[in-house]
Amino acid sequence: MTEKSLSDRDGPIQQESHNSAPPRGKKHHRALWMLFLVFFAFVAITFLTKHRDTINWIEDYEAGIKLAKQQNKPVLLAFYNKNISFCWAMDQHVYNNPEVIKYAEAKFIPILIDVDKQPEIVKQYNIDYYPTHYVGYPDSNEIELSEPMVGCVPDPRLFIERIDHLLNTIKRSNK
Q1: Alpha-helical segments (H) within the chain
Q2: CB-based burial label for 67 (10 Å; 0-12, 13-18, 19+)
């Protein structure tokens, strides 16, 4: 009888502890979900951070010109249409390049003109191809501009070289 009562006591205790532990499948499933969530968070943070790095554009033409006059700096005008693949390529391969960002922000007041939001500026400059870039020095009444750089230049170093050439050309004509 003692054997039976000991065996009765051992049985329910083992059964209780066995029932209270989650099955292995659920634990494994939960770990996979946690791994997936961590991976998703990492991808989302990387994606969001990557797309934040771009030239610190001023999107208001008048405000950009005013700032350039105050700081006595040339402007880099970029006429941009978000629906044009060449503009998208500039966003993806040039404007987010660290060397281009450093160059543009050190030498210029960069102004991005969204053609849909500022059509009067597009008309003023007679722009009909996107992207188009100008370099210029605003004086008291108007802005003296370089020749336009029309089209996509998907190589960041070549973009810097071409913009630098425009800057040097306009500097020479001011002297």
Answers
A1: 2-20, 24-52, 61-71, 85-93, 98-107, 119-125, 156-174
A2: middle
**Torsion sign over Cα 87, 88, 92, 96:** positive
For residue 111, the tally of other CB atoms under 10 A from its CB is 25
Name 149's bridge partners.
133
Structure tokens belonging to residue 6 = 């000991």
How far is 57 from 152, CA to CA, in rounded Å? Answer: 18
In sequence order, the 6+-apart residues with CB closer than 8 A to the CB of 129 are 150, 151
- Look-up of token digits 């040039």: 94
Residue 149 pLDDT exceeds 60 = yes
pLDDT tens by residue, 24-71: 667 777 877 777 777 777 666 666 555 558 999 999 999 999 999 999
Predicted TM-score of the model (pTM): 0.69
Model confidence at 8, pLDDT cuts 50, 70, 90, reads low
The encoded tokens of residue 14 equal 């083992």
Model pLDDT for residues 64-108, shown as the tens digit of each residue: 999 999 999 999 999 999 999 999 999 999 999 999 999 999 999
The single-letter code of the amino acid at 81 is: N
Q: Provide the 8-state DSSP code for 129.
A: S
